[in-house]
UniProtKB/TrEMBL annotation:
Protein's name according to its UniProt entry: DNA polymerase III subunit gamma/tau
SUPFAM superfamilies: P-loop containing nucleoside triphosphate hydrolases
Organism superkingdom: Bacteria
Species this chain originates from: Gimesia maris
Pfam families with a match to the protein in the record: DNA_pol3_delta2
Length: 113
């Protein structure tokens, strides 16, 4: 049996499973429902508060072809690929590791492809 960190094993997969960030989850879900999604979101905070989880859920909700009422299905290929970090349309960036000028230039070059 492979060891997996508890936080990763039980990572929330939709807005209703998010704990401690209910207002943020509700705001994002309402934006999707109302088709008023901003062009960018910046997730900040201490380690373990749910930044990556919330960003992945948002990415799923925006890209899932079966999203209903702002909730991604979690079953389709797009949702599954986003959950494991292998979707070609979603680029997850670790800000702690990519914070230099050269890192940003490289990121911009890759995004413009």
């Amino acid at each position: 049996m492979q060891y997996t960190v508890l936080a990763r094993r039980f990572r929330p997969q939709n807005f209703s499973e998010v704990v401690g960030q209910g207002m943020v989850a509700q705001a994002l879900q309402n934006a999707i429902r109302g088709d008023r999604v901003a062009h960018a979101y910046l997730f900040t905070g201490a380690r373990g508060v749910g930044k990556t989880s919330m960003a992945r859920i948002l990415a799923k909700a925006l890209n899932c072809p079966h999203t209903q009422d702002g909730i991604p299905c979690g079953e389709c290929e797009v949702c599954q690929n986003i959950a494991v970090g292998s979707d070609v349309d979603v680029l997850e960036i670790d800000g702690a590791s990519n914070r230099g000028i050269d890192d940003i230039r490289s990121l911009r070059a890759n995004v413009n492809v």
